[in-house]
């Protein structure tokens, strides 16, 4: 029979597919196994209503046969097979899908057509220089052979086949300087590909495996007998068939979930939590997710790759689909198996469609609820989780201009100076006295150091709690939220703002105390102007403090950028020169203030300037800032010690 030409569009599309669409050649086997599974599905569906089929579900199988010497790989199924017309229609027109037609006509939930036969089939030409298909349709006495060596066309001839089904015979290419194909005629290579991509196909995928065994010992056994071994072959099922995520949670033990997680995701410890999620309706999927008990060594590096393994009806589509997880839950591992995701021509690249977004949103809500349940029901385990991944949650609150703050704020933990333990923002607010105006926090590198800040003592002496923030993202996280829900005295919904104890009005003073400080600042304007001049542009203002109790001096920030935020930004490339507006605050009741005032009144300008620089350096040290000139500061202190 003369060679028949592919349609022009099909010829172009095949050439594109072979040379560029599929970036990973080994997925050809996934595609052909999926097609075989589809063909079996069709015959199995028919058997449910047609007794003449004479087959049960247990009778179906996909057989792989390897002829290494001749570089031939055969994929056989005992599914519904194809007539001559179907071979020509499905394989002569590359983009036609018999499976898709079948799926649209049959809505039974037990029938699950994975892919589009015509499209996936042509991936075989990535690894084979000739493809032969022998098929006999169920109910037909005829078998037909379709054969092609690529884009030039195909031949369709009568053939012999005793039973219904399809055989696809691949003549695997020889190695070239740039491409290796030996793995596709290697027993171990084929087994590895099946386990990776098709482990959960619902029918057994079988292959004769070469094995070794010890020969029986002769009787009687000679004294110089050496054990002998022999090779033999055994038909082995390569796939597990039933995905653990499709089983009911009651059918799976904790140990089975833990072992699956450790094996699948190469971890050496059990996960902190297992999340099972099933949804039917607008988005049909099964998900099995895991919250690890420790972060990967590369978690906070550019090398870390987030994402969930994505399956379509048990067939692996992507190892790590990043679109299924928001960044703030990037630590979650797991798989998602969906029956109705839209896939593009290669099955490798997902369209950014509404189905994927629906699954993303559902998983986001599920993960958040599971973390909240851990927080409420197993606080110790949650705090361990927080040590590992809390930073990522806080980045999630801050990122995208606080878009996700409302979703995540209930998960946040911070250290309480009053209770000496980690607390949630809700727990902090619940214990606030009625007269407390703000959620107070201090930000710096060390909790011990923060608790000793002058303003910290003032807050704690009032009986108010203080959150001690020790990570660089902490203050940015609270500032982007601005406030947290709090019911007012009448039980109505309201909010309470966050307040850095080293910035602005703390709301701790009476109106009389504030007025007294303002008056004292005005009275000492000449002194403060002289001090400000001595410090040049280092401070925006010098004034009498309302936040100091026993300490002589402190620094505060005037404006949205705090001193701690300045320190964090100073470590970022491109942020040089970003400064907070600093205010030098003095305790008017401290003996040092009296000395300063006396020097100014006596006209001792040098002493005022020297003391101003000393006090500013002391305030810098208290705030954890580097002293501008350590040598000059040391010399000035030594002069005082003489």
UniProtKB/TrEMBL annotation:
<keyword id="KW-0963">Cytoplasm</keyword>
<dbReference type="GO" id="GO:0005737">
    <property type="term" value="C:cytoplasm"/>
</dbReference>
<feature type="binding site">
    <location>
        <position position="77"/>
    </location>
    <ligand>
        <name>ATP</name>
    </ligand>
</feature>
<dbReference type="InterPro" id="IPR037196">
    <property type="entry name" value="HSP90_C"/>
</dbReference>
<feature type="binding site">
    <location>
        <position position="31"/>
    </location>
    <ligand>
        <name>ATP</name>
    </ligand>
</feature>
<feature type="binding site">
    <location>
        <position position="90"/>
    </location>
    <ligand>
        <name>ATP</name>
    </ligand>
</feature>
<feature type="binding site">
    <location>
        <position position="347"/>
    </location>
    <ligand>
        <name>ATP</name>
    </ligand>
</feature>
<feature type="binding site">
    <location>
        <position position="82"/>
    </location>
    <ligand>
        <name>ATP</name>
    </ligand>
</feature>
<keyword id="KW-0067">ATP-binding</keyword>
<comment type="similarity">
    <text>Belongs to the heat shock protein 90 family.</text>
</comment>
<dbReference type="GO" id="GO:0051082">
    <property type="term" value="F:unfolded protein binding"/>
</dbReference>
<feature type="region of interest" description="C">
    <location>
        <begin position="568"/>
        <end position="642"/>
    </location>
</feature>
<feature type="binding site">
    <location>
        <begin position="97"/>
        <end position="98"/>
    </location>
    <ligand>
        <name>ATP</name>
    </ligand>
</feature>
<keyword id="KW-0547">Nucleotide-binding</keyword>
<dbReference type="InterPro" id="IPR036890">
    <property type="entry name" value="HATPase_C_sf"/>
</dbReference>
<dbReference type="InterPro" id="IPR019805">
    <property type="entry name" value="Heat_shock_protein_90_CS"/>
</dbReference>
<feature type="binding site">
    <location>
        <position position="35"/>
    </location>
    <ligand>
        <name>ATP</name>
    </ligand>
</feature>
<dbReference type="GO" id="GO:0016887">
    <property type="term" value="F:ATP hydrolysis activity"/>
</dbReference>
<comment type="function">
    <text>Molecular chaperone. Has ATPase activity.</text>
</comment>
<keyword id="KW-0346">Stress response</keyword>
<dbReference type="GO" id="GO:0005524">
    <property type="term" value="F:ATP binding"/>
</dbReference>
<dbReference type="Pfam" id="PF00183">
    <property type="entry name" value="HSP90"/>
</dbReference>
<keyword id="KW-0175">Coiled coil</keyword>
<dbReference type="GO" id="GO:0140662">
    <property type="term" value="F:ATP-dependent protein folding chaperone"/>
</dbReference>
<feature type="binding site">
    <location>
        <begin position="116"/>
        <end position="121"/>
    </location>
    <ligand>
        <name>ATP</name>
    </ligand>
</feature>
<comment type="subunit">
    <text>Homodimer.</text>
</comment>
<feature type="region of interest" description="A; substrate-binding">
    <location>
        <begin position="1"/>
        <end position="347"/>
    </location>
</feature>
<feature type="binding site">
    <location>
        <position position="166"/>
    </location>
    <ligand>
        <name>ATP</name>
    </ligand>
</feature>
<keyword id="KW-0143">Chaperone</keyword>
<feature type="coiled-coil region">
    <location>
        <begin position="510"/>
        <end position="537"/>
    </location>
</feature>
<dbReference type="InterPro" id="IPR020568">
    <property type="entry name" value="Ribosomal_Su5_D2-typ_SF"/>
</dbReference>
<dbReference type="InterPro" id="IPR001404">
    <property type="entry name" value="Hsp90_fam"/>
</dbReference>
<dbReference type="InterPro" id="IPR020575">
    <property type="entry name" value="Hsp90_N"/>
</dbReference>
<dbReference type="Pfam" id="PF13589">
    <property type="entry name" value="HATPase_c_3"/>
</dbReference>
<protein>
    <recommendedName>
        <fullName>Chaperone protein HtpG</fullName>
    </recommendedName>
</protein>
């Amino acid at each position: 029979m003369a060679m028949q030409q592919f349609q022009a569009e099909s010829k172009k599309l095949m050439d594109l597919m072979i040379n560029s669409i599929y970036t990973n050649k080994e997925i050809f086997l996934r595609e052909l196994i999926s097609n075989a599974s589809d063909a079996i599905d069709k015959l199995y569906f028919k058997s449910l209503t047609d007794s003449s089929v004479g087959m049960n579900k247990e009778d179906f199988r996909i057989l792989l046969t390897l002829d290494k010497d001749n570089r031939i790989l055969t994929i056989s199924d005992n599914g519904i097979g194809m007539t001559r017309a179907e071979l020509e229609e499905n394989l002569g027109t590359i983009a036609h899908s018999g499976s898709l037609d079948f799926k649209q006509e049959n809505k039974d939930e037990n029938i699950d057509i994975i892919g589009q036969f015509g499209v996936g089939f042509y991936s075989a030409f990535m690894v084979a220089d000739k493809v032969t298909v022998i098929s006999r349709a169920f109910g037909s006495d005829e078998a037909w052979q379709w054969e092609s060596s690529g884009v030039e066309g195909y031949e369709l001839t009568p053939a012999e086949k005793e039973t219904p089904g399809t055989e696809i015979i691949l003549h695997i290419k020889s190695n070239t300087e740039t491409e290796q194909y030996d793995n596709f005629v290697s027993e171990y290579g084929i087994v590895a590909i099946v386990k990776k991509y098709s482990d959960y196909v619902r029918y057994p995928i079988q292959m004769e495996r070469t094995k070794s065994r010890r020969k029986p010992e002769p009787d009687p056994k000679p004294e110089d007998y050496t054990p002998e071994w022999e090779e033999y072959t055994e038909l082995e099922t390569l796939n597990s068939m039933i995905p653990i995520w499709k089983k009911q949670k009651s059918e799976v033990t904790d140990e089975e979930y833990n072992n699956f997680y450790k094996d699948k995701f190469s971890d050496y410890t059990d996960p902190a939590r297992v999340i099972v999620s099933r949804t039917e309706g607008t988005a049909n999927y099964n998900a099995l997710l895991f919250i690890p008990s420790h972060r990967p060594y590369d978690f906070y590096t550019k090398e870390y790759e987030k994402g969930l393994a994505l399956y379509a009806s048990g067939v692996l589509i992507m190892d790590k689909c990043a679109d299924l997880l928001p960044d703030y839950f990037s630590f979650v591992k797991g798989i998602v198996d969906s029956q109705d995701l839209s896939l593009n021509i290669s099955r490798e690249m997902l369209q950014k469609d509404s189905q994927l977004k629906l699954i993303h949103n559902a998983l986001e809500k599920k993960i958040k609820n599971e973390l909240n349940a851990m927080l409420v029901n197993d606080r110790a385990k949650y705090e361990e989780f927080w040590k590992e991944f809390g930073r990522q949650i806080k980045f999630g609150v801050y990122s995208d201009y606080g878009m996700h703050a409302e979703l995540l704020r209930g998960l946040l933990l911070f250290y309480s100076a009053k209770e000496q333990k980690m607390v949630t923002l809700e727990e902090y607010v619940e214990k606030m006295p009625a007269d407390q105006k703000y959620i107070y926090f201090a930000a710096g590198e060390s909790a011990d150091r923060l608790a000793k800040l002058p303003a910290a003592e003032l807050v704690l002496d009032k009986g108010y709690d203080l959150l001690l923030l020790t990570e660089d993202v902490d203050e940015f996280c609270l500032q982007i939220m601005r406030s947290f829900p709090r019911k007012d005295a009448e039980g109505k919904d309201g909010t309470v703002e966050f307040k850095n104890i080293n910035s602005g009005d703390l709301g701790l003073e009476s109106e009389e105390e504030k007025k007294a400080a303002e008056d004292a600042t005005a009275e000492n304007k000449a002194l403060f102007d002289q001090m400000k001049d001595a410090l040049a542009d280092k401070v925006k203002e010098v004034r009498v403090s309302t936040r100091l109790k026993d300490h002589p001096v402190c620094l505060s920030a005037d404006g949205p950028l705090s001193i701690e935020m300045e320190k964090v930004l100073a470590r970022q490339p491109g942020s040089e020169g970003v400064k907070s507006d600093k205010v030098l605050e003095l305790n008017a009741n401290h003996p040092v203030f009296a000395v300063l005032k006396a020097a100014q009144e006596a006209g001792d300008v040098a002493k005022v300037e020297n003391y101003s620089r000393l006090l500013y350096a002391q305030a810098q040290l208290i705030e954890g800032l580097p002293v501008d000139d350590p040598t000059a500061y040391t010399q000035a202190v030594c002069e005082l010690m003489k």
